[in-house]
Design goal:
Elements lengths: L16 E2 L4 E2 L1 E7 L10 H18 L2 E8 L2 E8 L5 H19 L1 H4 L11 E5 L1 H15 L2
Antiparallel strand pairs: 1-2, 3-5, 3-6, 4-5
Helix pairs in contact: 1-2
Amino acid sequence: MKNDTANPPKKPALDYLRDEHRVHLIVYHLIWIPKRRKPVLTGPIATDCRKLIEQKCAEKGWSVLELAIQPDHLHLFVRVWPTDSASDVVKECKGLTAYELRKKYPAVLKKLPSLWTRSYFASTAGNVSAATIEHYIASQRGM
C-alpha cells in the first residue's frame, strides 16, 4: 500500500448540511487553557490530548476542522449539530481529557488542582470567516 503524503486528506467542506427538518452550518472556534496557564500540553500529553479530543468529537458526530495544541492553551475549530452548544463541546472535551490525562500522567498533572480552568473562549463562524480561522489556528502550530 502506497503512503501518499503529497495529498493530505481533504477537510470537510463547509457547506450547509440538510436533514429531515433542518438546514444548518454551525461552526465554533473554541480556546481553553490549563489551570494557572501552566505549559503542560507538550510531548505525549499533547499527543494524547489530541487523540482524546478527536475521539470525543467523532463519538458525538462533530467534525474537527482544525486543532492546534500549544503548551499553555489549545484551539479547536469544530463543526457541530444545531442541538449542540459551544458549552456542550467544551464540557465534553475538557471532561474527557482532564479525567484521562490526569490518570495517565499523575506526576505532571496531579500537581495542578484541576487540569483546565473553568473559562473558555467561544466564537461562531460561517463560510466567510472559516478560512481566516483555519489559517490562524494553523499558524499557531508554528509558534
